[in-house]
């Protein structure tokens, strides 16, 4: 099984501070892989380093066999890697539809109408809000929009950074079930960063645990859930 | 009454020219957060390029005025756009990500460079253009024997400005390029995550601003019949005032601000004193900065997160 996304020995720095200290992660086609860890462990940094923001100082990142370690950010996106980033980063002064159009930019709008209808079917709430500005949406709606925007590019790899953050449990659950369904029906490859370890590990085929810029554990999602260290640190008293 | 009407017409004409220049300030500010102080000089370069294109075309035997004017417009826009692109590439892009004042300083340097380059290449004296479009589009004599006239040049200026502003607003509101520009304005990093080439988008913004400034340069040339290497400074600062008055970063704001500055300046000259017209225009800048720092249509820097 060759990996769609492969990260080998990657380090990244903010100024003099090492945020990633040699990270190895593989994501195979059709998998849901999750990365869990405490606040500040470097999870979001890894997500952004895949896009070269910040650049990896050492190590190698490949996507579908291409070395993308030094590729400009916008060209990485054009390889059909889409991210719903930390903080959602909705364009607040654009409408919901315009935000979705931004997501479709890498497809050159080849199947725009079809994709828009699909996103509206997945998130009917976005259809109701279609003409509203992104900045006026609620947190849950913004999260749906961020995921919808990422899906508009027909990604080969969907990266989600803390999609459940700050959401009511019911809405978080709804978002996780959308991810699961897309994976099951369309074999969408998903790389998911979460603090909500329980949901993430139940959903994922495989998981990695990150502590202080290093991967300390990896394994099947359910398998990690059973590990006493994981339970102690991220599920029971740890939060 | 006739006098008032005539001033109104003159003010709208002048305001159109300021508005065209102001768009370049406001768009560049919106996307890179800096005041492009060389923009007034790009306008001046546009005026010179228009003059050169006109003389070249007449030398080549293109004498039909509408055809020649259209060609001059296209040529001036193309070459001035090239200037805008080069200025961004040389003076601003290398400094992106550096401290905030750096591009501002290099903008002032660029402004001086352009002025001096034109002064050396074209000479310091005023370059005249004989009236190209004579005649009045409309005139009527009032009761007191005062004639209200709208000249053909004024009609051309206002009509061209209107068309360009509408086209430009549509471009920003409806096309993928305009959307990319607005996305870069709001969150450059996210835009690049969505496959937008941010550097290219910024370059194109400078190109568009310069193209509009060159139209303003051509209009100035037609209206006043002269250009010199120094016209960019005062016109640039006035257009900048217009952009601030309208709300820097806002396109309709730049257009409205341009019109207002043109009207204020014209009426001030007409009813009070022509010597103090610049004082009037710049006093507006001060008053706006004190009491309404975000301008007429600008937005306060508050966003719901």
UniProtKB/TrEMBL annotation, chain A:
One of its GO terms (biological process) is L-amino acid transport. It comes from the Bacteria. Residues 5-237 form the ABC transporter domain. It comes from Hansschlegelia quercus. The lineage of its organism: Bacteria, Pseudomonadati, Pseudomonadota, Alphaproteobacteria, Hyphomicrobiales. Belongs to the ABC transporter superfamily. This is ABC transporter ATP-binding protein. InterPro entries: AAA+_ATPase, ABC_transporter-like_ATP-bd, ABC_transporter-like_CS, BCAA_Transport_ATP-bd_LivF, P-loop_NTPase. SUPFAM superfamilies: P-loop containing nucleoside triphosphate hydrolases.
TrEMBL record, chain B:
CDD domains: TM_PBP1_LivH_like (cd06582). InterPro entries: ABC_transp_permease, BCAA_transport_permease. This is Branched-chain amino acid ABC transporter permease LivH. The keyword Transport applies. Its main location: membrane. One of its GO terms (molecular function) is L-leucine transmembrane transporter activity. It is found in: Cell membrane. The chain crosses the membrane at residues 12-35, 42-62, 68-87, 146-172, 280-298. GO terms for biological process: D-alanine transmembrane transport; L-alanine transport; L-isoleucine import across plasma membrane. GO terms for cellular component: plasma membrane. Pfam families: BPD_transp_2 (PF02653). Keywords: Amino-acid transport, Cell inner membrane, Cell membrane, Membrane, Transmembrane, Transmembrane helix, Transport. The keyword Membrane applies. It is a multi-pass membrane protein. It comes from Hansschlegelia quercus. Belongs to the binding-protein-dependent transport system permease family. LivHM subfamily.
